[in-house]
User: Fold this.
Amino acid sequence: MVIPLFLVSLVMAILLCWHAVRTGRDSMWLWIILMFQPIGGLVYLALNVVPDIFGGGTAQRVGRVAREALDPHREYREAKRACEETPTVRNRSRLAAAAALMGHHAEAEALWRAAAQGVHADDPVLLLGLANALLELGRSGEALEVLEKLGADEAHGRTPAAALAMGRAYEGLGRIPEADRAFQWAVERMPGFEALGRYAAFLARQGRADEARAMVKDMDQRLAKLTAQFHKEGRAWRDLAAEALSGR
Assistant:
């Protein structure tokens, strides 16, 4: 007796839905599995079941990247749920970071500020997160005050990421020579493309187009050597500098 393919697909969908509920997956997966048979089931298998079976860092990273591409708001939703259930400093910080990635900077600022209280008032991670949120909101003066408090701690505050934020704050306040020094310090020490992109954009805004173009060219050469996994983020910072050069 030949079992109809649709029956096999239905049984598989039911089993996958059971797995999703049993393992606490987002309810979105139930909709994907049932509405997009059999493709939805195959996607669920690849992203959730296979990594669970085989484990390993590579499989988990691949699954995480794929899940983020399929559902970019997932981390924000999960972080918000965790924060609502247990508003600890850790959960507030997680939600603040997720909110910032989505462009919800006012929400991120409120969360970082709420977390940086009491014994955590001088926490360098919380202060840097707060400063960056303030910068995104155009409140350079307040950001600089936070960064100066952070910079008083030589062991933690004077980091490349803090210097980069300091450069942005100085630029926002029109303190250009100080901004230039802070950006240069960050570029020399900070891995990745953010410092390069932000400094090139700063140079373009200051009329130093030749220097900015040279940095964009350098970023293009570096990007050509990157794997697809890291190319997207690097390209975003390269494009930030290119847009500043074009005057947009």
